[in-house]
């Protein structure tokens, strides 16, 4: 008989070749596939062939879990791009920057003081959600699985007894003791002790804390610069001896923003995901000024997973060596692609009075040594009609899947559109938006 053809939702017809007009434009996730064509064009430079016997050990020759060669290339890359000061700083590797963001909260809470720490950020914000958010733990090895179980139990106990100090949470220790008896492994015990040793709560927007920083409260501020969702460069708002910032620089690369000067903060976090686009390799690094914070973050990474996969470190080395070799080809590719998309989106919306996107001023970039136009990773999109308009629903009805503004602490008039997915995703977005705008009453 005839071969059965399984089409996906966007294609139909006998041989799956007909594009369906009902196919939605999905611009929800921040999957950085816009960089795929770059690696296709440079196929040999990004390719790896690894023997089965290569790097089987838990550690590198010097007992460390961090590839010295990779660390060297990361420092070199920062100095070529001029986006971070790394001289005299410590570097910690993580399973994506997600793990490092959690490691940093944990470590700053530990090193800040013995009392409970409040975690704050400024709206609209990337919802990192330290540890309690279990989305973080989608991985792999047995140690991590045990850590997940511990974390679920701790969070569950906390949720039920919210408002109490952790020292009062007797139920945590009884729950974890039960698990101790069941699992009875040394790793499990050390992790239980480790993850129980500090406590922190996500409490909300920095504006609540602006006047409270001269008290004794320990405050950890998340600063995402450029910001996700709105692409603006940000600085920490809170000051004082009890305020510590975690600077998430996932997008601080020439693809997405001008680089005005090298970042020079105490805790800076970067990721391969948005630099080369290899989000699935799960590799990030933190640049740390203070040795105690560095030690605490290293201990965290070691407890949660015995460090970062050496295969991943090899991939990162191969890619970053290439990125740091030429004349910044990946940055030109990244900037031109993103700039082009931003221009097309701007033109599409220029005839609309119903919808708007954020404005970002051209800015001097020390990497390109000139003033350059914006090219953010996301559009922070606003429905302008009603105060309480559900912008997500408006766009969903027009066949566009976005991420709700409420997830970023904003109101429902806002949504985020990802511009870093494939060219097909972007083209479909523009096609759907063009139709939506043309149907507007009184479109200009
Ligand atoms: N920080 C920001 C601001 C992000 O947008 C993302 C991914 N969307 C991350 C961190 C996490 O990236 P990863 O864990 O892949 O390094």
TrEMBL record:
Q: In what residue span(s) does the Alliinase C-terminal domain sit?
A: 25-128, 187-436
Biological process (GO) annotations held by this record are: amino acid metabolic process
InterPro entries under this entry?
A: Alliinase_C, Alliinase_N_sf, EGF_alliinase, Ethylene_sulfur-biosynth, PyrdxlP-dep_Trfase, PyrdxlP-dep_Trfase_major, PyrdxlP-dep_Trfase_small
Q: Which cofactor does it need?
A: pyridoxal 5'-phosphate
Q: Which Pfam families does the entry mention?
A: Alliinase_C, EGF_alliinase
Q: What are the protein's UniProt keywords? A: Aminotransferase, Membrane, Pyridoxal phosphate, Transferase, Transmembrane, Transmembrane helix
- Entry-linked Gene3D superfamilies: Aspartate Aminotransferase, domain 1 (3.90.1150.10), EGF-like, alliinase (2.10.25.30), Type I PLP-dependent aspartate aminotransferase-like (Major domain) (3.40.640.10)
Domain of life, per UniProt, equals: Eukaryota
> Which Gene Ontology MF annotations are present?
carbon-sulfur lyase activity; transaminase activity
User: What's the family?
Assistant: Belongs to the alliinase family.
- Per its record, how is this protein called by name? Uncharacterized protein
């Amino acid at each position: 008989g005839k071969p059965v053809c399984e089409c996906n939702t966007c294609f139909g017809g006998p041989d799956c070749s007909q594009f369906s007009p009902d196919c939605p434009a999905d611009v929800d996730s921040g999957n950085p596939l816009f960089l795929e064509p770059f690696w296709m064009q440079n196929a040999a430079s990004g390719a790896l062939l690894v023997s089965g016997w290569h790097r089987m050990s838990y550690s590198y020759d010097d007992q460390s879990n961090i590839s010295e060669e990779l660390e060297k290339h990361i420092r070199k890359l920062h100095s070529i791009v001029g986006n971070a000061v790394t001289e005299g700083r410590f570097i910690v590797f993580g399973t994506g920057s997600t793990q490092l963001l959690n490691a940093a909260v944990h470590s700053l809470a530990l090193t800040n003081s013995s009392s409970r720490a409040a975690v704050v950020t400024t709206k609209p914000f990337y919802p990192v959600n330290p540890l309690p958010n279990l989305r973080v733990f989608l991985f792999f090895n047995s140690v991590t699985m045990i850590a997940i179980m511990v974390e679920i139990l701790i969070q569950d106990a906390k949720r039920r007894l919210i408002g109490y100090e952790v020292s009062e949470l007797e139920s945590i220790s009884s729950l974890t003791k039960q698990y101790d008896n069941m699992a009875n492994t040394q790793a499990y015990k050390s992790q239980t002790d480790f993850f129980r040793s500090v406590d922190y709560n996500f409490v909300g927007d920095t504006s609540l804390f602006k006047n409270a920083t001269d008290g004794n409260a320990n405050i950890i501020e998340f600063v995402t610069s450029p910001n996700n969702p709105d692409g603006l460069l940000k600085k920490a708002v809170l000051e004082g001896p009890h305020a510590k910032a975690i600077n998430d620089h996932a997008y601080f690369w020439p693809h997405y923003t001008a680089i005005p000067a090298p970042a020079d903060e105490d805790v800076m976090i970067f990721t391969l995901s948005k630099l080369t686009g290899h989000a699935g390799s799960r590799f990030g690094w933190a640049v740390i000024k203070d040795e105690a914070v560095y030690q605490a973050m290293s201990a965290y990474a070691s407890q949660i997973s015995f460090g970062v996969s050496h295969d991943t470190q090899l991939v990162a080395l191969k890619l970053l060596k290439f990125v740091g070799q030429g004349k910044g080809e990946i940055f030109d590719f990244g900037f031109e692609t993103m700039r082009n998309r931003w221009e097309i989106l701007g033109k599409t919306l220029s005839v609309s009075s119903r919808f708007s996107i954020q404005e970002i001023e051209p800015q001097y970039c020390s990497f390109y040594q000139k003033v350059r136009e914006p090219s953010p990773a996301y559009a922070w999109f606003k429905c302008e009609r009603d105060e309480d308009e559900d912008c997500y629903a408006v766009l969903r009805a027009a066949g566009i899947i976005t991420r709700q503004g409420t997830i970023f602490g904003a109101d429902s008039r806002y949504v985020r559109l990802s511009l870093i997915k494939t060219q097909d995703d972007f083209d479909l977005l523009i096609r759907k938006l063009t139709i939506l705008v043309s149907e507007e009453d009184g479109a200009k």
